[in-house]
Amino acid sequence: MTFDIRPLSDALGAELIGLDLSVPLDDDTFAKVHRAHLDHHVLVFRDQKLPPQAQIDFSKRFGPLDQHPADDAVLDGFPEVLMVSTKRENGNFIGLPDAGPMWHSDLAYKERTALGTMLYGVEIPEDGGDTGFANMHKAYETLPAALREAVDGKRGLFLAGRTNAKRSFKRPLNQEQKEKTPPATHPIIRTHPETGRKSVFANPQHTIAIEGMDEAESDRILSDLFAHCARPEFAYHHKWRVGDLTFWDNRSVLHIADLSRLDDPSYIRHLHRTTIEGDAPF
Ligand code: SIN
After folding, report:
1. Measured from the CB, is residue 73 less than 6 Å from ligand 1?
2. CA angle in degrees (0–180, nearest 5) for 130-178-111
3. Whose CA is nearest to atom 6 of ligand 1?
4. Of the ranges 37-46, 53-62, 261-270, which one carries the lowest mean pLDDT score?
């Protein structure tokens, strides 16, 4: 199978044109898609007709799948598919309306963090609901010297379910879900296990402190670090269409969802997410 690669921005991201992901890719094509993922960090496949099982099968080519701690937000019959959705039934959200209120990397609060995430657009609003992606290799390579010195060799403390977002509809985890996701520590600067490149791994949604550092100093450094990582020149913002599949590398990318219309009950944004397990960052 052949496909074209169209870069989406100077920072990261590429559209792969000409592939139908509802049928299995041959090994040679799969290897090229894998290479494109490592090179561009975020892949976009437009106009896909992707039943949940086909999304699961494609995701599993990259590794075993994670089951999200919010086990009450998964698609019936497909526990590996998390619904990122503003739809309601009997007044309650059927999925997570807001899985990404702040810049973050998926499963960064676990011992083994996520390799990648696939998000498939099932119902998309006319306006709003974009997903932003930021290239953390670029963030690392441009770190001011003092900040790099402050975080190099340090570990961060990562926690699930934290949110500092000004407005958030994030569903808190219940006690049992929290117990399944104790805090983890990871290097703030990590090395990509496949490319060997370094990146900033801390994020404002999950990283609450720098291990072994005085609290005020840790807060100040993390705040400077998060401001640096959010610089617009590192980012690409994806405008969704129905049938888009995005696939990002959580080892090199932070992402964030636009929440600006979440309090409008007529605003429907419904996506299927699969998350591929990775390894413990080093
Ligand atoms: C997520 O962070 O997994 C979801 C991102 C989005 O809703 O755009």
Report:
1. no
2. 75
3. 257
4. 261-270
**Which DSSP string do the residues of 8-34 spell out, in sequence order?**
--SSS-EEEES--TTSPPPHHHHHHHH
Q: Look at ligand 1, atom 2, and give the residue with the nearest C-alpha.
A: 100
CATH superfamily of 4-277: Clavaminate synthase-like (3.60.130.10)
Atom of ligand 1 nearest to the CA of 273: 3
Question: Cβ contacts of residue 66 below 8 Å, gap of 6+?
Answer: 80, 107, 114, 275, 276, 277
Is the pTM for the entire model greater than 0.85? yes
Residue 8's nearest CA partner among 239, 205, 198, 178 is 239
For the segment 47-75, the average pLDDT, to the nearest whole number, is: 95
Three-state SS for 128-149 is: CCCEEEEEHHHHHHCCCHHHHH
Question: Does 68 contact ligand 1 (Cβ within 6 A)?
Answer: no
Residues 149-165: pLDDT tens digits? 999 999 999 998 655 43
pLDDT band at 139 (very low <50, low <70, confident <90, very high): very high
DSSP state of 92: E
Q: Mean pLDDT score of the chain, rounded to an integer?
A: 92
Domain boundary assignment for the chain = 4-277
Res 169 pLDDT > 50: no
